[in-house]
C-alpha cells in the first residue's frame, strides 16, 4: 500500500521535481540529485535520493567546508520547505522508505549507535519523522535518537497521521525546538 501510494504521488510530483531540479542546476550546477548510502530497515543499506542543497566547496586541506558555508539561498529554501525530499518518493515507491519513520542515517552512524541503532532499524526509515517535527536540526544526535526510539516503540497509523500534519506545520512555519521535558517523554 505504501509503495503504491509513493508511486502514485511521484507521478504528479515529477513536474515540480523537474522545476526544482532546474533551480538546483542554475544555482549550484550538476548534479541536481544528492545520492547517499543510508541504513534502512534492519540496517540494510540503500541509496537515498534528495535534491541537492549545497554547493561543493572544499577548504585548503581538501575537506568540505561547513554546511552553513556550502548551503545556497535556493538550498535553504529547499530545506526549509522540505521540497528537497520530493525525490525520496522514489525510495518510498521502491520500498526502501516509508512516509513516516526515523530519518535514514549513514550506515556508520547506525553502527556507532550499537543497540540503539539496531532498535531504530526495526521500522522502515521515513521521509519525515517524530524528531523532524520536534526540532530536527535544532536537536543533538542523542535527542533525535531518543525521539526516534520513542517512535519505534509507539508507532501507529494515528501517530503517523499526526506526524504528517505536523510536518505540514513545520514546512509552513519552520523548525521549533520542543521543551526538554516534552523531548524526554516523546510528547509535544
Characterise the protein shown here:
The protein has 188 residues and is mainly alpha-helical. The chain is built from nine helices and four strands; from the N terminus they run αββαααβααβααα. The strands form two sheets. A two-stranded antiparallel ribbon has the order 1-2. Strands 3-4 form a two-stranded parallel sheet. Strand 1 (33-39) and strand 2 form a beta hairpin. It is globular, with a radius of gyration of 16 Å.
| C-alpha geometry | globular
Secondary structure class reads: mainly alpha
SSE topology string? HEEHHHEHHEHHH
Strand content: 5-15%
Count of discrete alpha- or pi-helical segments spanning 4 or more residues: 9
Helicity range of the residues?
40-55%
Strand order of the largest sheet: 1-2
Rg, please? Answer: 16 Å
Q: End-to-end distance, in Å?
A: 29 Å
Mean pLDDT: 91
Largest sheet: 2 strands, antiparallel
Low-confidence stretches: none
Number of strands: 4
Write the layout of secondary structure elements.
Blueprint lengths: L1 H27 L4 E7 L5 E7 L15 H4 L2 H9 L6 H7 L3 E3 L6 H6 L2 H6 L5 E3 L12 H14 L2 H17 L6 H6 L3
Parallel strand pairs: 3-4
Antiparallel strand pairs: 1-2
